[in-house]
Sequence to fold (344 residues):
Amino acid sequence: MVREFGRTAEGKEVKLYTLKNKGGMEIAVTDYGAALVKVLVPDKDGKAKDVVLGYDRASDYEAGGVYFGATVGRVANRIGGASFSLNGKEYKLTANDNQNSLHGGRDYYNKRMWSVEDLTEQKAAFCLESPDGDQGYPGAVKVTVTYELTDDNELTIHYHAVSDADTLLNLTNHSYFNLSGHASGTVLGQEVFIAAEAFTRADAESIPTGELVPVAGTPMDFREYKAIGAEIEKDYEALILGQGYDHNWALDGTGMRTVAGMRSKETGIVMEVLTDLPGMQFYTGNFIISEQGKEGAEYKRRYGACFETQYFPDAVHKEHFAGPAVKAGVPYDTVTVYRFRTEG
Fold:
């Protein structure tokens, strides 16, 4: 189903695309920013719950600054000093997070119109042509982000891109999940697990130092399910600097595997995160002050949690981190899955 979703400030018409499966689940995505707008999941009583934060119209996505549902690129997360060297050449980026570049600088992918390449009842593919020099990066890149809703209640996001020159690519989705419902308030009582024995220590500007810190014995240990709020206010360096959880976990294993989970005892909804990427930013919405969201909801601090699969932040400056550099003509291809079920 396709419907109008408003217009941009320049008058461009924006559409909202709804995908449905046979299990009663549905999602809505928009060609403005290739953003994920809704995820409706049946709860333990069979009632549909919208479990992602978002807005009711395109103009709010255009004005918003907290990346609700956003497709982020060319390079998600932070690059220290807003510059990098590739093949012996130095590239300058836009500094938009202190002296660093965050989520591509200010000319964000999630603030652009994407074209629809493929659309079925359960799949929508969005395409963006990113020219050479875009955001300061070399190479003209064609990016395709495909959302697919399977009958197994899996929301699959497939990222595919090819550049005509060596460049950096690190795409992710910045949805904020609240499995009790997008308008239900804080997520601090919901439980999370992260399959990671270590996280990347970061400085006061959230730039990794290069050190991998074991999670054992720290508030960063989510190897078994625990409430998000159980230790979020602990006197621990990472939590103090991040004002809560806003860190990259070095995920266990390689290849496509289950790396994280979230669950709400209130609704019985469980979400599992699967990816083939090495890292994931777990962020607890620490910097949301007040956002007017869908259906009159007001979102505040820690009303949602993000599971941003990725290459490690600032990996271009850390030789021992798996990096986001891609060769000309070699496809960047990665998949992240959000799988839903109920229990209880």
Q: What stands out?
A: The two ends are 32 Å apart (CA to CA). The longest helix spans residues 58-63. The chain has a mean pLDDT of 98.
